[in-house]
Amino acid sequence: MTENTIIEAYHITETRLGHHNRIVQPLLTDLYQITMAYAYWKSGKTKDFSVFDLFFRKNPFQGEFTIFAGLEESLKFLKRFHYSESDIEYLRQTLPDTIDDEFFDYLSKLNTNDVTLYAVEEGSVVFPRVPLMRIEGPLIIVQLLETTLLTLVNYASLMATNAARYRMAAGDLKLLEFGLRRAQGPDGGLSASKYSYIGGFDGTSNVLAGKLFNIPVKGTHAHSYITSFTDLTELKTCMLIPKAGGEFRNVSQLAISWRLKLTSLFKVVSMEASDGELAAFISFAVAFPDGFMALVDTYDVKRSGLLNFCAVALALNDLGYQAIGIRIDSGDLAYLSNVARQFFLEISKKYDIPWFAGLTIMASNDINEETILSLNDQGHKIDCFGIGTHLVTCQRQPALGCVFKMVELNGQPRMKLSQDVGKVTMPGRKDVYRLYSESGDALIDLLQKSSEEAPQVNQKVLCRHPFEESKRAYVTPSKVEKLLRIYWKDGQIIEPLPNLSEIRNKVQASLRTLRPDIKRNLNPTPFKVAVSYNLYKFLHDLWLQNAPIGELS
Ligand SMILES: Nc1ncnc2c1ncn2[C@@H]1O[C@H](COP(=O)(O)OP(=O)(O)OP(=O)(O)O)[C@@H](O)[C@H]1O
Ligand SMILES: O=P(O)(O)OC[C@H]1O[C@H](OP(=O)(O)OP(=O)(O)O)[C@H](O)[C@@H]1O
Ligand SMILES: O=C(O)c1cccnc1
Ligand SMILES: [Mg+2]
């Protein structure tokens, strides 16, 4: 590969469908897909017609729901699926010499025009065993899609689910994703920014994600900015024109005199506050008078950071500018946020500056879902969380286990047996219906054979547990939603795709249909996924046919 082609491969290009990640290409797969393709081809299976389901078996994060994501990227992959000349050349060199040359001609002409892809709407809540995608088409081609589709759906869905959980824990508070530096490489970082936005984050610090996906980009500054100043004499400029115009004023002088006034209110000694920190705040305020946000924990939040911040914010106020707030990045975040809010309230009252009471308090530092829930219990005054490591690495569970299993070949059902019933695949071409109660709550997902009639509104339908015979229930739905829709057929995306913020809204709307006990953090109730009477019978008959009878001796 030349240097240029490597650079190109990593390039993310703009297409009619938004941005396309060019790492996503047919060779982004496991070798065994290509060796299987050759063996299928060699044994004359080019005309075999297959149906595969993509599904997972267990919800992540000890939860009872998952958010489905990665569909748009999967469709873009199908659209661009093509082995380039250099791909074919690479495969020729890599596969054994015994491979028929004609196979490479066959590969070079492959496309996904004969593939049909059904999927659940991106951003929907989904559950174990429900096909998130059903892919139909020539066996060889569908098999070749497996790994890439899984890599596109697994992390995207895990990330969107993680973000949605943080969103539930944080309620209406602002959530910013700060994870790029700790993410699983550049592509992991970009995906994390994208899918955490879908899951309910409000913005990201990742500038490229902002540009590519139109996500709001936000940020403050680092401790290095604060420690780069040691005293006020280092300030090269501290002059600022008031917002309404007029003569330059000296922000440094104003801030120093405010700091003196505030020491009695804060019951601290001005000597204890760091002059380097004050200088850093002044210089940042002069650079961003309308966007002044200060990192206050470099030396001591109570004795230095808050005092210096308030002094500079009041100096800015003298010139008609409103500061934004503070970020606290260490210590007891509940306690310090309460202290900070108290300071802001007192200043607001004493100097009659109403907006001061509502200054933003951002907290960061190794925050995860549990920290947010614990902070809620303790009582805090944080308005915004900046979250990196735990969010983007999905530290609590680093992978979602979506699999891609054949369920039908040439019209005949296929089934993978397992000692573990949870791993037995649901054979045949199936559809999925979500049944809703009168109040709009999702009651159950019902899997049926595609040949069966859809359940009808206000008509009683029997829903069975797929494996436990005694577990069954009648449901009379007030609404029936067919979950699998056709997205790709005859070489085209046939359903208009939502943009990122529409998918983000879909996540919240879909979560609202779940009862609170299914979404709670501790010991949530599982959502029921059932099969129809016919599918139950079909599954168990086939199971008996396929399971060998052992002989004891
Ligand atoms: N009130 C709180 N309740 C629960 N967890 C908290 C609270 N305040 C902070 N935390 C969490 O506790 C951990 C504290 O981290 P750590 O022990 O590294 O201390 P630190 O404050 O970062 O210290 P340092 O000043 O050395 O950086 C972080 O994960 C943080 O999110
Ligand atoms: O804590 P996270 O959830 O990953 O959020 C992002 C962190 O990244 C920054 O820290 P930095 O990289 O400067 O290192 P630190 O660990 O010393 O704070 C920032 O100050 C946050 O603490
Ligand atoms: O803008 C910030 O405050 C930020 C960005 C990335 C990581 N930590 C903090
Ligand atoms: Mg940190």
Detailed description of the structure:
The chain has 553 residues and is an alpha/beta fold. It has 2 domains: 3-166 and 397-546, Alpha-Beta Barrel (nicotinate phosphoribosyltransferase); 220-382, TIM Barrel, CATH 3.20.20. Helices cover 39% and strands 18% of the residues. The protein is built from 18 helices and 25 strands. The protein has a 7-stranded antiparallel β-sheet, covered by helices on one side. A 6-stranded parallel β-sheet has the order 9-8-15-14-13-12. Helix 6 (139-170) crosses helix 7. It starts with a helix and ends in a 7-residue tail after the last helix. Residues 1-10 have low confidence and may be disordered.
Give keywords.
alpha/beta, 25 strands, binds adenosine-5'-triphosphate, binds magnesium ion, binds 1-O-pyrophosphono-5-O-phosphono-alpha-D-ribofuranose, TIM Barrel, Nicotinate_pribotase-like_C, seven-stranded antiparallel beta sheet, binds nicotinic acid, NAPRTase_N, nicotinate phosphoribosyltransferase, 2 domains, 553 residues, disordered N terminus
